[in-house]
Amino acid sequence: MSNSVSALNGASATGFATVRDMGLQGMITLRGDLSAAAIKNAVKTAAGGDMPSAGHISLSDAGSAAWMSPDELLIVVPYADADAKLAEITKGMGDAHHMAVNVSDARCMFAVSGDDALVREALAKLMPVDLSPAAFKIGQFRRSRMAQVPAAVWMADTGEARIVCFRSVAQYVFDLLKGATAPGSEVRYMAR
Amino acid sequence: MLILTCPCCGVTGEETEFHGGGEAHLKRFGPGSTDEAFHDYLFSKVNPKGVHLERWRHNNGCGKWFHAARDTVTLEVYGTYPAQTTQPPQSIKDAISAKRPGWSWREFA
Q: Which of 114-153 (A) contact B at CB < 8 A?
């Protein structure tokens, strides 16, 4: 068995906030009718939380479920559990029309942590999204772009942002975040 | 810069989060139609100064297609509406009429 590692194998950089490759994360794409009971149960069994509302992510100890589009969810679980969880979902969904795929190795996740205002500011430099605490609360989930590539972002906690992007652009996104958090480049717009 | 609201996911984003998909409400002329109709379907697009109905895709977001009614001069967006329709809904027509009385776009007015 080969030794699986994430795209940047846990790389980190510290500027006015810390950027960190979160390592291997289990991610399952689940598409289907999100109003169906079967899919709600699947979310409950796989991620341990409730169905997220539009534009939100439901966070629980067992995992999280993010609302990607009106017919798509992203379920984040520990990497080692992804295949087992996928099997559970497929079994639970039964004959219901759906698609569930393990996309763990197609994606990567970053954490940006530090002072809340500075973390938000670093992301706001890169994304065309209002990331002020009033507009982007903990638990909200936003798919957008980070400079030139698609990325999704949410605040896991105060001063704890998470970013999901494609694995193929991991180095690019890491470099962007590293540049955006370079010491001395604080704008302090959010802190005012 | 356009500020569009995706009717599918409800996100309001700026233009670079979306991708324009050309003219809206095209009527397809395929096999069996005249050469002229097929030519017009492929190539004859309107390029109005003023009210325009377009298709857009939320490509850096939910990935869904939708329609937008906007003004090519002022870049004002009158509204967005779902892709699953062959004509703009009355609410969109009313929103345009409020700002541009007497507007017309192809067969719609």
A: 128-129, 142-145, 150
Count, residues in chain A: 192
Kindly provide the ipTM of the predicted complex, given to two decimals.
Answer: 0.88
Each residue's pLDDT, cut to its tens digit, for chain B (109 residues) gives: 899 999 999 999 999 999 999 999 999 999 999 999 999 999 999 999 999 999 999 999 999 999 999 999 999 999 999 999 999 999 999 999 999 999 999 999 8
**Among B65, B59, B9, which residue's Cα sits nearest to residue A151?**
B59
Looking up tokens 């095209």 gives B26
Chain B residues touching A128 at Cβ < 8 A: 13-14, 16-17
Is the Cβ pair A144, B63 closer than 8 Å? Answer: no
User: Across-strand partners of B4?
Assistant: B13
Instruction: Give the separation between CA B58 and CA B25, rounded to whole angstroms.
Output: 18
d(CA A69, CA A106): 18
Residue B13's nearest CA partner among B66, B52, B51, B53 is B66
Q: φ, ψ for residue A85 (rounded to 5)?
A: -65, -40
According to DSSP, the β-strands at B19-23 and B51-57 are antiparallel
- For A48-128, strand residue ranges (E) read 57-59, 64-69, 72-78, 98-102, 107-113
Contact A144 B17 (CB under 8 A): yes
Question: What are the phi and psi torsion angles at A38 (to 5°)?
Answer: -60, -40
Gyration radius of chain A over CA positions: 17
CB A77 within 8 A of CB A62: yes
Exposed/middle/buried for residue A2 (C-beta within 10 Å: 0-12, 13-18, 19+)? exposed
Backbone angles phi, psi at A161, to 5 degrees: -100, 150
pLDDT one-digit tens code per residue, A43-64: 998 998 899 999 999 998 889 9
